[in-house]
Design a protein that fits this description.
Layout (H helix, E strand, L loop, with lengths): L2 H11 L13 H10 L7 E4 L6 H7 L5 E5 L2 H11 L6 E5 L11 E6 L9 H14 E12 L6 E2 L2 E2 L5 H8 L3 E12 L5 E11 L12
Parallel strand pairs: 1-2, 1-4, 2-3, 4-5
Antiparallel strand pairs: 5-9, 6-7, 8-9
Length: 214
């Protein structure tokens, strides 16, 4: 089974509150985003957003330039149904983030869902290259992964655990670290998962322009 079909099956067979990553209010992500004091028209993309409620709260906060990307079409459909008419205010993309080609640059790239599933170093480096390419210079990256105290697998797939140091080293080529900390997530099944939350600022490196001229 390829990874797209894997996630289609997950969302086909599990409701919103039946997945381990469900949180009724994405408080940690929202608190980080608020600190950046972005304008309401800032371009924000949520990677692996699926039917996460982050987009709901960003809309409530007045943000009006939001993109949600997920490999699962079923997850996107569920989010659209939940939001109803408000779904028209969001750009929805069904893509594998590693094959994603953006038509614009973003002020904020948020990922609490996808990155730790890339266990191959080549995929990790390609992901980091994509973030740098499609973030504006001085744009923000909010990346949440399983910490070294977190689970070793999720939804039947192996995951990559990170420490503050290992994640920072991987991103150091393009990004300046702002802050890292761990948070314990309590799943709907009353189990605890340790997450590492890190925020970074994109920087333009000589020889590595954010987007090549057309």
């Amino acid at each position: 089974m390829d990874k797209k079909q894997h996630w289609e099956n997950i969302y086909q067979n599990h409701q919103l509150k039946q997945v381990s990553w469900y949180e009724p209010i994405p408080e940690t992500s929202l608190s980080i985003i608020k600190r950046f004091k972005l304008p309401k028209n800032a371009a924000i993309i949520d990677i692996g957003g699926g039917d996460s409620l982050l987009v709901d709260y960003l809309l409530l906060m007045g943000y009006n330039n939001i993109t949600v990307l997920d490999i699962s079409e079923k997850a996107i459909e569920r989010a659209k149904i939940r939001l109803g008419e408000k779904s028209r205010l969001v750009t929805w993309l069904v893509h594998d983030v590693l094959d994603f080609s953006a038509i614009k640059k973003y002020d904020l790239w948020h990922d609490r869902a996808a990155f730790h599933f890339f266990t191959d170093i080549n995929d990790q480096e390609k992901y980091v290259d994509n973030v740098h390419q499609y973030l504006k210079p001085d744009g923000y990256l909010v990346l949440s992964t399983f910490s070294t105290e977190g689970p070793e697998s999720c939804s039947g797939l192996p995951v990559q655990q990170y420490s503050e140091n290992s994640l920072s080293v991987l991103l150091n080529k393009y990004f300046e670290k702002i802050k890292c900390f761990t948070r314990m997530h309590i799943t709907p099944f009353h189990t605890a998962q340790s997450f590492l939350f890190c925020s970074f600022k994109n920087r333009e490196i000589e020889g590595y322009p954010c987007i090549a001229p057309i």
